[in-house]
Design brief:
The complex is a heterodimer.
Chain A lengths: L7 H39 L1
Chain B lengths: L8 H31 L14 H28 L2 H33 L7 H22 L3 H28 L20 H44 L1
Helix pairs in contact in B: 1-6, 2-3, 2-5, 2-6, 3-4, 3-6, 4-5
Classes of the chains: A mainly alpha, B mainly alpha.
């Protein structure tokens, strides 16, 4: 069982900010890769 | 078989494509496992529950420095042997390193407020980490600012060499200067300073998870850069025709 006591706000904010930054990084990386793949496929088909 | 064969973009795309699902699955398992295990550890007698922040802070700080070292190696390969994939890998790694540095700075500040009584101190390690973050930002900005990709790779390679001083300083700052708030290495093996096994093993798992997460993101982002480079080459060929 998770016990955070009086430091609950401190611990949760550290995890919250880190999760937000990591999710944004992963999202941006995957989305940019999908965009680049689609653009290249389009170019190779019609170019 | 030579390692330089992977400098061939076609071979890199084939091998990285096959590796990626395994690396992603291992990264998710180790990161989630390490952090979940860390969150469930008992409170520390001095730090209370804030000790749980170490499972984010230490792996992020470790990767912040090591990613710059990887970028240095890739930049040197570019500068010496002119392999495009290595220059693109260095470019791809920089945003991941910047985010890792930011996580280390932010989680350190959040931990420092209740433990040290301040969010920030101009301590050698904290300051060198802030400078490292600025180097990451400058490196990313320089890539965006220069249109010719080879010139951009040359100049960012030189910037990477200069920034390496600060990456090393971030690692060894607490040894160079004995003053400052930041404690010594979290994983010290010196007698009496060794972290308890209760915290050490989940920390190892979390560190492995962060390394694998970086590897997964590096592969994805390098593949993106290779695709963009190929697209630009095809468009340039079409314009000339």
């Amino acid at each position: 069982m998770m016990e955070l006591g009086k430091y609950a706000g401190t611990v949760l904010s550290a995890y919250g900010v880190s999760a937000l930054l990591l999710v944004a990084l992963v999202w941006q990386s995957v989305a940019a890769n999908a965009r680049a793949r689609r653009a290249l496929e389009r170019q190779e088909r019609h170019g | 078989m030579s390692i330089w064969e992977y400098a061939n973009p076609v071979k890199f795309m084939r091998v990285s494509g096959a590796m990626l699902p395994w690396v992603v699955a291992s990264a998710v398992l180790c990161t989630a496992g390490g952090i979940a295990w860390g969150v469930l550890t008992p409170e520390d007698y001095k730090q209370g529950a804030t000790v749980k922040i170490v499972f984010l802070h230490v792996p992020a700080a470790m990767m912040a420095i090591n990613i710059w070292v990887m970028m240095l190696a890739a930049s040197l390969i570019w500068l010496i042997r002119r392999h495009h994939v290595s220059a693109l890998a260095a470019k791809a790694a920089a945003p991941v390193g910047a985010v890792m540095t930011l996580i280390a700075l932010v989680t350190g500040a959040i931990w420092g407020q209740p433990m040290w009584g301040t969010w920030w101190e101009w301590d050698p390690r904290l300051t060198s980490f802030l400078i490292l973050f600025l180097f990451y930002a400058g490196y990313i900005a320089l890539w965006s600012a220069i249109e010719d990709p080879d010139s951009a790779a040359d100049l960012t390679g030189v910037l990477c060499l200069v920034g390496s001083v600060f990456a090393l300083l971030s690692r060894y700052a607490v040894l160079f200067w004995n003053q400052g708030l930041h404690q010594g290495a979290s994983l010290s093996v010196a007698p009496g300073e060794r972290m308890s096994a209760v915290y050490r093993y989940p920390l190892y798992l979390s560190m492995l998870g962060f390394f694998l997460l970086f590897l997964a993101l590096l592969l994805i982002r390098t593949r993106t850069e290779i695709r963009r480079r190929r697209l630009a080459a095809l468009q340039a060929r079409e314009m000339r025709a």
